[in-house]
Structures are given as structure tokens and as C-alpha cells.
Amino acid sequence: MGTAFTISGIRPVLLSHVYPPGEELEWVAGAIRSWDAALVEVTLSDGSTGIGEVGAGIMAASAVPGIVEALRRYAIDQTFAHPLEVGDRLRSYTAFWSRGGISSGVVGAIETAALDAVAQRESAPAFELLGGLKRYRIEAYASGGLGSSFEHVAQWADAQVTSGFRTVKFRAMKDPDTTISLLEHVVPRLPSRVRFVIDAVQASASHPWSVDDAIRVGLVAEKLDALWFEEPCFATDLAGYAKVSDALRITVSGIESNSTLEEFIRLFELKGVGLAQPDVSIVGGPMNFQRVANLARDYNVGCVPHVWGSAVTFSANLHAALAHGHVNLFEYCTLPNPLREELLVEPIQLIDGCIKAPTGPGLGVRVDPDIERKFAFSAGAGHVIR
After folding, report:
1. What is the dihedral angle through the alpha carbons of 347, 349, 353, 355, rounded to the nearest 10 degrees?
2. Residue 385 falls within a domain, yes or no?
3. What confidence score (pLDDT) does residue 232 get?
4. Residues 256 and 176 in one domain
5. Domain span at 262
């Protein structure tokens, strides 16, 4: 049938995994009491269905259904020659209100779902519709390290090394001095062959550090030979990014919450990062992910996807990464999250620290009535920054 299709239906699918009492994910910014996922299901006129995810849904899932409804009139009964046309078409008609933010994530989820549906219909892995495999496996790094104590973070890092990861990423504490102490506690315990990343979490989320403090932490990370220093400034502080990058020899990375191509262009022009972290589920879909990766290559900037969601976000970014020659490392959140494992058709194959390319059709995810019942949405929790 080829890649052409007509969309006949779109619906939001909100899911939650509520952690039992005592098993919440504790970290310095609060407790994650449930892992939420805001998915979008697309149905084609031939009955094929596919799934996409809105990355911001981990924090704001309740906002997604209304945006899906607003986009419906621009997608239903529309015919496309290829799934990668979907995002641009929707953005062209909604430029008055969908230029970025969570709206961009919803547009990208519709494009991702269309990609999944067409690839399943054609019995091909999604990466085949993204230009084909550029590698048969990709190295993954362990991402987590949310502990509220130094020892908790250190024990998590030890467990990742035991599992076979060669790179671990853990999160900063709320203030720069405690973060420096965390680095000095955790890093010397790592085996010499293991690399580390420190994620300052927009340095640090609701109460960002000064640029001078970010540089101070970065210099310690540099001394300890960090692979990169992630998001040392608030997401909108591009001048701060440029100053931190200029002051350090190690790579500065970001900005995972950038939801438009234009935001990445400006970041690159200001030499704010040496490593870009786009996310298919945030930046507007797989087409925009490819564009950011292309720009990163042209600006001599690295590119590693941000991946923090259900199996849908994981798989969408994995297929996009495997299909792009400039991406050679992949984020693997190892925090307990059944919305990752139970939505996958095939389990993740981690061998020698690398993820093998999936072989099944589409993205390799499933959302059926049993999944929707088991993970019924529970409003009011999710990721909450304190």
C-alpha cells in the first residue's frame, strides 16, 4: 500500500501507574507518586492504529485531551503521502496557538502515532520509514539517580554498573554546594571504566542557581572528568548557557524541554551547548527530531535524545536514534516504571551496555483495553516539582 494514508480517528489515552505506599520515587524535588503518560491513538481509514506520546504528559497529562480536540478538525479525513508530513501540516494550520510547548508535543504525538500505524500496516519497523537503520545497536546510558541522600544515589549507580551500563547519569541536589558534595561522594566509588553525567535539572528546577554557581559546580564535574554537564541553567536562560559553556572545558548539554526547531537553532547560534538533547515526544515528532539532529551535526554539536516516559516515548526515540547517523548514545531511564515494560511488544534487549534494534512492525508498543483498565488514569499526581 505504500506510505500514503488518511486519518479517520484520533483519541487521547491517559494512563497512570500509581506507586504503592512506600514505593514512591523520592528525590530532592519531592515524591513521584504516580508515573503518568499522555498518549494519542490515531486510526487510519483502513483500520490500522498507532500510538504516540506527549512528553510533557508526565507532568501535565490533563492538558492533553483539550489540545487533541482542538487539532482534530485539521487531521480527521486528511490524506498524507507520508507520516513525516503530519507535523508540518498541523503546525501550518495552527500557528496562532501551537508554536511550542505542550501543543507541540501533541502535534508530535499525532505524527508519531501515524508513523506507528503506517509501519505496522506495512509490516516494517518504524525506523524503515525514517530512512532505515544507520546502526544495528546503540549504546545506552543509565539515567535515574533521583535519590534524596548521597548513599541512595551511590547505591543506584552501583546497581547500574552491575547491570552492564558503562555510563550513569544522576541528578543534582537543590543547591550547588550539596551537589558538589554529592559529586565528591558518588564519583570516586565508580569503577575507572565507568563514565558519569551530572544533570543539574535546569539548575535546579524551581529555584535556579546563579550562573557563577553553575560554573562552580561544572568545574568540579570537570575535575572529576564528567562526560557532560546537563542543563546547568534555567531553560530560557540562553545567555547563561553560553557563559557556562565558555567557562568549562567539559561539554554542556540541553535543552530537553525545547519544543521547537527554532529554540535549538538559537541555542546553537549562541554556542550554548556542545550536546543537544531533543525528544521526539517534546520537539514536535520524529521529523523535527531529525531536523534537530541534522542541525546539531552541521553546528558540530553532539546529539543524544532525551528519553523519559512510557514505552511509547522510549520506542519513538529509539527508532529515531537508530535511523540517524549523528546519534550514537541513548538515554535509558532505569527507574521502576511498568508503563515502559508492559507496553512493549518485545522486551528491551540490553547486551554489553547496548540496545539492539527491534525487529517487529511499527514502534513495537501496544495499548489495549486491558492496559487501559490496569493503568487507569489517576489525576493530580505525576511528576510534580517542589
Report:
1. -100
2. no
3. 97
4. yes
5. 128-363
